[in-house]
Specification:
about 0% strand; 2 domains; single chain; mainly alpha
Length: about 200
């Protein structure tokens, strides 16, 4: 299961816990068979039970998010330094950079060269450096199509999400709303399966 799917599944499970709590709470509160003290005792017991379930469910989301963040950092590191030891890759990159320096290269050829390095942030940075300052159509076309390095923005958004989860972990279960979970689910839809940003936003 992908990191995104796992987190979405855990958010959905947490939402179901809240809905189950609300249904049981309402049934007990409206009970005609219990005394006022009996109702209050049952309500307190169900509050305690579901508060614990809710906190554990948020803890599971946090664990999945931490694991995904660790994997994401590892993949970014690998893409940055992973090809440094690959002599063939480095020779190909140097050749591509030399070809891209030539203002006579056709846009289609330049795009084909660049497409090979699209997941390598270091290579994209080198390509951007080679083409910056040039005003020709090919250079501008390539520069405008290069993926942005949004790793820092990605980190910031996921860490803000983590803070939101942590701050909600001890919220009173009676005051939780499904809108909170809907917001979390909408937030997660902005990411790819590995939690990289889908778009630069």
């Amino acid at each position: 299961m992908t990191a995104k799917k796992e987190i979405i599944q855990k958010i959905t499970t947490t939402d179901l816990i809240i809905k189950e709590f609300q249904e049981k709470y309402k049934a007990i509160a409206e009970s005609k068979e219990l005394s006022a003290i009996g109702i209050e005792n049952r309500l307190q017991a169900i509050r305690n039970e579901y508060q614990e379930k809710y906190s554990a469910a948020i803890g599971a989301i946090l664990t999945a998010l931490d694991t995904a963040l660790t994997q994401l950092e590892k993949s970014w590191k690998k893409s940055t330094i992973g090809n440094l030891d690959n002599a063939g890759y480095q020779a190909g990159l140097q050749t591509a950079l030399l070809m891209l320096k030539n203002p006579e290269i056709a846009l289609e050829d330049a795009q084909n060269l660049v497409s090979h390095y699209v997941d390598d942030y270091s290579a994209i940075g080198a390509i951007r450096g080679v083409l910056s300052g040039r005003e020709d159509e090919t250079a501008q076309g390539i520069l405008n199509s290069l993926p942005r390095d949004n790793r820092q923005r990605n980190r910031e958004l996921l860490n803000k999400f983590k803070v939101s989860l942590e701050s909600s972990q001890n919220n009173n279960i009676e005051h939780l709303s499904e809108f909170q979970f809907f917001g979390w689910l909408q937030f997660m839809e902005r990411f790819e399966d590995d939690l990289t940003l889908e778009v630069d936003w």
